[in-house]
Amino acid sequence: TVDLAAPGVKIMSSVPGNLYEDSISIFGIPLAEWSGTSMATPHVAGAAALILSQYPDADYHEIKERLMNSVTRVAGLNGKIMTGGTLNVMGALQ
Predict the structure, then answer these.
(1) What residues contact residue 44 under an 8 Å CB cut-off, 6+ apart?
(2) Contact between residue 4 and residue 81 where contact means Cβ atoms under 8 Å apart
(3) What is the pTM of this model?
(4) d(Cα 55, Cα 73) in Å, to the nearest integer?
């Protein structure tokens, strides 16, 4: 199951060399837009790292609870994902 939604569509990411036809280069760094869970997962991992930086004694369970309980509810996600909402980093840090 999916616990919460996170940005994962048309996320700009660095790519190795010029292997991709649709890549662009900014300041010499090759970039491409990607979509999917591989792009959404780093958003949640980054949010967890921010929580840990603010609450260094937090364990896995507290971090997960903060992420799950702070989502922004979206009616269209009800019944599709466990929390029915999207990642809300600011809410998780409060």
Answers:
(1) 4, 6, 67, 87
(2) yes
(3) 0.83
(4) 24
* Positive or negative torsion for Cα 43, 44, 45, 46: positive
Q: Give the C-alpha separation, 80 to 39, whole Å.
A: 19
DSSP characters over 8-76: -SSEEEE-STT-STT-EEETTEEEEEE-SHHHHHHHHHHHHHHHHHH-TT--HHHHHHHHHHT-EE-GG
Please write the tens of the pLDDT for every residue from 18-67. 677 778 888 988 898 989 988 999 999 999 999 999 999 999 999 999 99
CA distance 26 to 7: 22
